[in-house]
Amino acid sequence: MPKIFIVRHGQDTDNVKKILNGHHDTDLTDLGREQVKETAQKLESEYVDKAYVSPLKRCQQTAQIITEELKLPEAEVLPDLIERSFGVFTEKPSSDIRKMTDDFLAADQVDYFLSGEGVETFPDTYGRAQSLLEFVEHKHPNENILLVTHGDIGKMLRAAFYGWTWQEGLLTPYLANAEIIILER
Is 110 part of any domain? Predict the structure, then answer.
């Protein structure tokens, strides 16, 4: 039975500073690169047919390390794998979420802001995740696929795959840097 492997990018420069990055395009740190190498080792026992990646650098660097380690072709950019837009929260300290809005959901290790100027809502992110899964399942019905992406869209991909609501998806355990989620039926 085919699997979808979701990998969140390794630690980036904003993660170190506890800054909300969204579409802010940052590089992996040295620790982030090491995290990704460990993730690639965990994937060595799995067969991956095709890799897709977010257009942001931190994910592209993550995908490059994994595909080189696994001797896979270069990952193809899928624009919809980009993190949701954080709007006014972009480049703000994550600790400021509760100071900036009352519209948030407290979850495992993180507060998720739910609205704000320029913010992509979770219902919209969830809809994008559903479309991504439809694309992957239609184009690769019998293949194992690697998706290198971000935390919020990663959680929405898992929620959409299992038919959970976006709220249920956010309340699942924190998706750490370079962590793997395996989706299978």
Answer: no
